[in-house]
Automatic annotation (TrEMBL):
Biased composition annotated in UniProt, kind: Acidic residues: 529-553
Short name of any one Pfam family annotated for the protein: efThoc1
Stretch list, region Disordered: 440-553
Species of the source: Malus domestica
Biased composition range(s): Basic and acidic residues: 440-469
Name of the protein described by the UniProt record: THO complex subunit 1
GO cellular component terms, A-Z: THO complex part of transcription export complex
PANTHER family, A to Z: HPR1, THO COMPLEX SUBUNIT 1
Length: 553
């Protein structure tokens, strides 16, 4: 204060004495650096014993007191510590950091986790998303966070002490999850203990009244929880929904780590271990959903957080690539340039998706993923276009979309052959199922009765003409048998037989020709003309046949 009082009373501009005054104030710090001694021990008197302080810690204590009482700006102590570390060696920085840790209760402003979160969110705005300074790349666990509990049962305990020991022994695995994959013995011990805990939770469910009476969600936002491990509190803690949720969420985090990718082959769980993890995970989620209050909502939030954590793990496994993507520049490919790397599935994203299939084998077989729509569902957009009330302009109709029409024809060919047959006559709109159309539109595409009768008569006439042609080409077996046995035959029969012997056809009489004309019509006209020619040839052949059979001639 005397130095500053002298500086204030000096006349003239501040440029003459400001720097000198500051250097005189921080002289202990500068002298400690120049002397080569340890900064935190500089100026320490050996006569005072262990309670003696050096000049630097004494100076920091004074500034910290002034900041705490708000006599000076609160950030001055941090500015002083920053200057001190910048001008110190690595060994001296360790001593400075030891001083900071000894004053963390004052510097840390208590354990207000909400306020700490606000500070972290504020700092996040000044660092890029891909900043790796706070990322645990190797995934190292803090195994020094040991949970101590009673090993021997105290006198007068009212709970099962074996359950107490089993319950708190799970924290050893929660603290160091990689230890479970080192051997089957530790995993069996963990699962057996976990089954005991889960069975106890299921046998003693909490009611809604207990959940509301012991809900600590609002208070828990103001401090970080470190539960007491006294055996006398075990009964009360089991009735606390927050305590149960704490343990169950630890189980989900552990299971998520064991299933996470990026481990070596020896660290991956076995097939039997995967089945046990899946079974235990389902039981834990069911218990979380049953724990009041709002168990289902709480479970949904936890699953969402764990899903984001899995994405974070994938990002670390990929080497923490930056999230920001620069705009692509058009580059001219020069001859002899290096080719792009070849991926197993064509590109990096598909290759990554192929790896994920190992973790989720049902992803590609889910029936909801890809399904063939029904005919009525597929043609509904076209039906809406056909409605005049919709007022859709023709150029925007689905019938002008070639891909849409092509897919629809494929679906109709598989599921609706009747509708598919109307495509030739009515186009793509005729393929639409009739039940989707209005009565007026339906009448356009339904087959009329007259059309059906004409089509049937046409098919019948074709059948009759085909039958007549078969009769003309056939050889009657009875006629051949009669000739061989010497049975008398009339002239027409002889003529027909003679014609057949020459490769001709039977001679139809006048009545047959008239009926044929009536049935066959225009399509049988050509057949009638051919039959008349064959009659003349048959008559000539018949006369020759009579001459051969007449003994007198």
């Amino acid at each position: 204060m005397e130095v500053f009082r002298t500086a204030i009373l000096q006349p003239g501009p501040p440029e003459r004495f400001a720097l000198q005054t500051v250097q005189q104030v921080i002289q202990p710090q500068s002298s400690a650096v120049q002397s080569g001694e340890q900064i935190m021990q500089y100026g320490q008197s050996t006569d005072a014993g262990e309670t003696a302080q050096g000049h630097i810690p004494r100076l920091l204590d004074v500034v910290l007191y002034l900041c705490e009482k708000e006599h000076v700006e609160g950030g001055m102590i941090f500015q002083l510590l920053e200057d001190l570390t910048e001008m110190s060696t690595m060994r001296n920085c360790k001593d400075v950091f030891g001083y900071i840790e000894s004053k963390q209760d004052i510097l840390g402003k208590a354990n207000d986790v909400v306020f700490c979160g606000r500070i972290l969110m504020f700092l996040a705005h000044f660092f890029p998303l891909s900043e790796r300074s706070a990322v645990n790349i190797k995934g190292v666990f803090n195994t020094s966070n040991e949970t101590k509990y009673e090993k021997d049962p105290p006198d007068g305990i009212s709970i099962d002490f074996n359950f107490y020991k089993t319950f708190w022994s799970l924290q050893e695995s929660f603290c160091n999850p990689p230890s479970l994959t080192l051997g089957p013995t530790k995993w069996k011990k963990f699962t057996s203990g976990l089954m005991v805990v889960l069975n106890t939770f299921e046998a003693q469910p909490l009611s809604d009244e207990e959940g509301d009476a012991n809900n600590l969600e609002e208070e828990a936002t103001n401090f970080s929880i470190k539960y007491l491990t006294s055996s006398k509190l075990m009964g009360l803690e089991l009735k606390d929904p927050s305590f149960r949720r704490h343990i169950l969420v630890q189980c989900l985090i552990l299971f998520d780590y064991l299933k996470a990718p990026g481990k070596s082959e020896k660290d991956l769980p076995s097939e039997s271990m995967k089945e046990e993890i899946k079974s235990c995970e389902e039981r834990v989620k069911k218990l979380l959903e049953m724990t009041p209050p709002k168990g289902k909502e709480f479970l949904n939030k936890i699953e969402h957080i764990l899903e984001r954590e899995r994405n974070w793990v994938w990002w670390k496994c990929d080497g923490c690539p930056p999230f920001e993507k620069q705009p692509m520049e058009k580059k001219v490919i020069q001859e002899g340039a290096k080719k792009r790397p070849r991926w197993r599935m064509g590109n990096k994203e598909l290759s990554q998706l192929w790896k994920w299939a190992d973790q989720n084998p049902n992803a590609l077989t889910d029936p909801q993923r890809v399904r063939t729509p029904s005919i009525t569902e597929y043609w509904k957009p076209l039906v809406e276009d056909m409605d005049p009330a919709a007022g859709i302009e023709p150029e925007y109709h689905h019938k002008n979309n070639r891909v849409y029409c092509w897919k629809g024809l494929r679906f109709s060919a598989r599921q609706d052959l009747e509708g598919f047959s109307r495509f030739t006559e009515h186009g793509i709109e005729g393929v639409v199922p009739l039940e989707l159309l209005s009565p007026e539109e339906r009448s356009k595409y339904q087959a009329k009765p007259n059309d059906r009768s004409k089509r049937a008569k046409k098919e019948e006439s074709k059948g009759a003409a085909h039958q007549l042609e078969e009769n003309q080409n056939a050889t009657p077996a009875s006629e051949l048998d009669g000739e061989a046995s010497g049975t008398p035959m009339d002239t027409d029969t002889i003529a027909a037989a003679g014609n057949m012997s020459q490769g001709g056809s039977p001679i139809p009489d006048e009545h047959q020709k008239q009926s044929s004309d009536a049935d066959v019509g225009q399509e049988g006209g050509q057949l009638e003309a051919d039959a008349e020619v064959e009659v003349e040839a048959g008559m000539l052949d018949g006369e020759d046949a009579e001459a051969d059979l007449d003994p007198v001639g």
